[in-house]
Every structure is written in structure tokens, then in C-alpha cells.
Specification:
The chain is of the alpha+beta class. The protein is built from 16 helices and 23 strands. About 30% of the residues lie in helices and about 25% in strands. A hairpin with a 2-residue loop joins strand 15 and strand 16. Helix 5 packs across helix 6 and helix 9 packs across helix 10. About 50% of the residues are buried.
């Protein structure tokens, strides 16, 4: 696997008149904090539109953009921001985004969510053929250099991004800021979400609609796969299109990553998770006393399971809200400590009861084992684990921290063996056919490569050549 692999959140705003764009960006990034907790940044053009100011650092949004910074930030017409989650590789200031480029052809900033699968090949070619120097190990710098290279031939940044789509492979949702343009671009498969909203006379772009809600903006539409949409400071906009590929929204957005109050490609994340839980209850009815969810992404599916089964819904855990999501912490040791810190079994709710416990996924199995042990220690009589996703059996090459088959418990053991290892009385995963049914009646199709070991596009240099039918 390549050194860096990201799941991130992006935001951008462009207005016709100066506004508190930096403050609005910080607020939106806070709403997107679940997409990345290791670093954040905001870039904006000065009043004269000739220079970019960029503040970024490792840490949480509230740590980086404190009250003093926000109070002193000037009103401006344009800004962009990013929250970062690095799955492997170094977490440094240099690798945080936005990536700012100062060049005679163009001064601009790039925010990128996704993973370029041919990044190593592109980087090596640039270094070997023309001695390019890279200051980071992330994909965004590669994207920036390709845009600059394309500018000489295309003459515009949006056409350079269109040409970029014939060069890079993989997942990329981009926000690109110049002194008078804000460009939103999405890869031809639409692996990662990206949407457009309105805030007064301003246009806003974000990974999820919850960012719009946080600032009082109105959702307008999603950026289409292969679309490059250019919003200008005079309020006009235009789109150009690359030929779309097989549509393949990452199914893990709906299962885990996106906030339940968001809409992704027109679908309610909350309702999708309810349907996953309902499907689980139909797939495997279970004799139990109570249905509980693992905080927090298991809550909605657990509620759906309760609604479908008629079993009462209750709480199994009290969550410490000041500890981050264990799955996106970078080390296994950090994940293990975080599980113990953030979840405490609620004895009064589950002691002596047969519990249906609903979670969104099992990746390595260590977290599930700790959670089940805590329920046993609290007096649960039986624990029937229900997973609102199929088993993870393959890596993800498009931005989720599933980097090797060696780390996937479902690749090594049968369902019965996993059940025994994690200490549950029974274990059922959601059938993949039931999972994909939640998009029936829409134009959206999923990438389910992590469940099937088949991918919608070829993955350069990774030995993966299977595709969807």
C-alpha cells in the first residue's frame, strides 16, 4: 500500500461581498470534525485578492482556530478548509491541508478528500523526468502540480482539472480556491461525497450537508461524478464534465463515516441506517429482551432493528463524548485505550438481560471483543451481535482505513470462529444483497469492494483487476 491514505472533510465558500468566511469555514469544519481529527486548515485570500493566508496545524478544529484567531480574521470573499485523518504515514503540519501553491501561472489552494491510487507512479514520474520536488507525502500536492502543468495548455484552472481526470486514478472530491474562483470537482465514479449550498449571496461547498446546517446555509444539490463546477466571485457559475465512469459511492459513507443528519447524493444517512437495522431484524429474528446500539454509528441501525422486531430499544453504554472515534485513531494501542475510555457499560439497563447488540462493522475484532467483555462484566445474560454491514474481506483503495487483508478478521476466520473469538453468543452480518437494496429507486450505486474484493475501476500497481459487472 502507499504511504498515505486519507478520509477527510472539505469546505469552501465564495461570496460577492466580504463576509466572515474564515469564521464560517471554522464552524463548518467543526461540523465535519468526525471525518478527520488529526489536523485542520483554512486558507483565504487577502482583501486585495493577491496573496493567500493559510493557517493549519495538527489537532482538532477548536484547538487550531481559537477565539483570538477567529476574532482577528478579516472579512473576505473566499476561503476553503480541510479536516484530515491520516490512516498511515506521518501526521505532520506539512501533510495537513489546504495545500497552497504560488506559481507564475496561478496562485491557488487545494483541499482533497479521497485517495489517488496511481499516486506513487505519478510522483515517481515527476521526480525522475523533471526533477520535481515534493514537500509532503500526500496526494494533494501531486494534484496541485498536475494542475500547474496543465495550465500552460488549457489556460484555465477548471479545464486543467478536467485534464487532470485523464491522469489521476482513484477517489477525489476537490475544493480548489483561486483569487476569484471556487472550484468543486468530483471523480468520475463519485467515490466521495461533495455538495453545493447557498448562504445569502455566497456559494458553499462541503463534503456533507451537516456543514451547511451548522452555518445556516441551504443545500442546493450534489456535485455529479465527473463534474467540475466553477463558482465565480460575481455570483455566476458554470460546469464542465468529464465522461462519468461506473457510479460507485463508497458504501462506508452510509454505514459509518457520514453523520446521520447528513444527506449523501440525496439519500438520508439516518434513514439508510434505519433500513440496515430493519433488514438485519428480518434476516435473523432473535429471541431477546432488549436491542442496543454501540455508540454512536450503531444507534440508528439498532433503532431500526427494534422497530422491525418489536423488541424494546435501550441503552447499553454511557459514552464519554470527549474521546474521539476509536476507528480513526492512527495506532492500535490508541484505539484500544480509547475504547476503554469512551464507553462504559450501563449495568442498570442490561444486567440479567438477553441483549441484541448492533454495531456498524467488525474490522480487526479487538474493539468488539472489548465491548462484549464489558457487557459480560456488567451482567448481560446473552449477547447477540448484529452487524449492519457484510464482513470486510478486502482492502479499500479509495480512502478508508482498510489497508491490508492481514488486518481483517473476516479474512482469517469464519463467522462462527469470529463469534467465539470476540465472546458473543451469536453473530450475524447484514447480507450484501440487503445492503444494496437501500438505494433502490435512486441513481446511486455503491462501491462494495471491501466486502466483495471486486472494484469499480482498476487499481494501478495493486494487483486488483476485478470490476463490477
Amino acid at each position: 500500500m502507499r504511504k498515505l491514505n486519507e478520509e477527510c472533510g472539505v469546505f469552501g465558500i465564495i461570496a460577492q461581498t466580504p463576509q466572515p468566511c474564515v469564521h464560517l469555514s471554522a464552524t463548518a469544519l467543526l461540523a465535519l470534525q468526525h471525518r478527520g481529527q488529526e489536523g485542520a486548515g483554512i486558507a483565504y485570500f487577502s482583501d486585495d485578492n493577491e496573496s493567500i493566508t493559510c493557517k493549519k496545524d495538527v489537532g482538532l478544529v477548536t484547538e487550531i482556530f481559537d477565539g483570538n484567531f477567529l476574532q482577528n480574521a478579516p472579512d473576505t470573499k473566499i476561503a476553503c478548509g480541510h479536516v484530515r485523518y491520516s490512516t498511515t504515514g506521518s501526521n505532520t503540519v506539512e501533510n495537513t491541508q489546504p495545500i497552497v501553491t504560488h506559481h507564475s501561472r496561478l496562485t491557488f489552494a487545494v483541499c482533497h478528500n479521497g485517495n489517488i491510487t496511481n499516486a506513487d507512479t505519478l510522483r515517481g514520474k515527476m521526480v525522475n523526468e523533471r526533477g520535481a520536488v515534493f514537500y509532503t507525502t500526500n496526494d494533494s500536492e501531486i494534484i496541485s502540480k498536475i494542475i500547474i502543468d496543465n495550465m500552460l495548455e488549457t489556460g484555465s484552472v477548471e479545464k486543467s482539472v478536467l485534464a487532470l481526470m485523464d491522469i489521476v486514478e482513484g477517489a477525489f472530491s476537490l475544493v480548489i480556491m483561486t483569487k476569484d474562483k471556487l472550484i468543486a470537482a468530483r471523480d468520475p465514479q463519485g467515490f466521495r461525497p461533495l455538495c453545493v449550498g447557498k448562504y445569502g449571496d455566497a456559494t458553499v461547498i462541503a463534503s456533507e450537508t451537516c456543514a451547511f446546517d451548522s452555518i445556516g446555509a441551504e443545500y442546493v444539490r450534489d456535485i455529479l461524478p465527473g463534474e467540475i463546477c466553477c463558482f465565480k466571485s460575481d455570483g455566476t457559475s458554470e460546469s464542465i464534465y468529464h465522461k462519468p465512469g461506473p457510479r460507485a459511492l463508497c458504501v462506508f459513507e452510509m454505514i459509518y463515516f457520514a453523520r446521520p443528519d447528513s444527506y449523501v447524493d440525496g439519500m438520508s444517512v439516518y434513514k439508510a441506517r434505519l433500513e440496515m437495522g430493519r433488514a438485519l431484524a428480518r434476516q435473523c429474528p432473535t429471541d431477546a429482551d432488549i436491542v442496543c446500539g454501540v455508540p454512536e454509528s450503531g444507534f440508528d441501525a439498532a433503532y431500526g432493528y427494534s422497530m422491525e422486531s418489536g423488541l424494546p430499544y435501550g441503552m447499553a453504554f454511557v459514552r464519554n463524548r470527549y474521546v474521539g472515534r476509536s476507528f480513526i485513531l492512527p495506532s492500535q494501542g490508541g484505539r484500544a485505550r480509547a475504547v476503554g475510555l469512551k464507553l462504559n457499560a450501563l449495568k442498570a439497563s442490561i444486567a440479567g438481560k438477553r441483549v441484541v447488540l448492533v454495531d456498524d462493522s467488525i474490522v480487526r475484532g479487538t474493539t468488539s471483543a472489548r465491548i462484549i467483555k464489558s457487557l459480560r462484566d456488567a451482567g448481560a445474560k446473552e449477547i447477540h451481535l448484529r452487524i449492519s454491514a457484510p464482513p470486510f474481506i478486502a482492502p479499500c483503495y479509495f480512502g478508508v482505513d482498510i489497508d491490508s487483508k492481514d488486518n481483517l478478521i473476516a479474512n482469517k476466520y469464519s463467522v462462527e470462529e469470529i463469534c467465539k473469538q470476540i465472546g458473543a453468543d451469536s453473530l450475524v452480518y447484514l447480507d450484501i444483497d440487503e445492503l444494496v437494496k437501500i438505494t433502490q429507486g435512486t441513481d446511486v450505486k455503491y462501491c462494495t469492494g471491501c466486502f466483495t474484493d471486486k472494484y469499480p475501476i482498476n487499481v494501478s500497481g495493486a494487483g486488483k483487476k476485478d470490476k463490477f459487472d
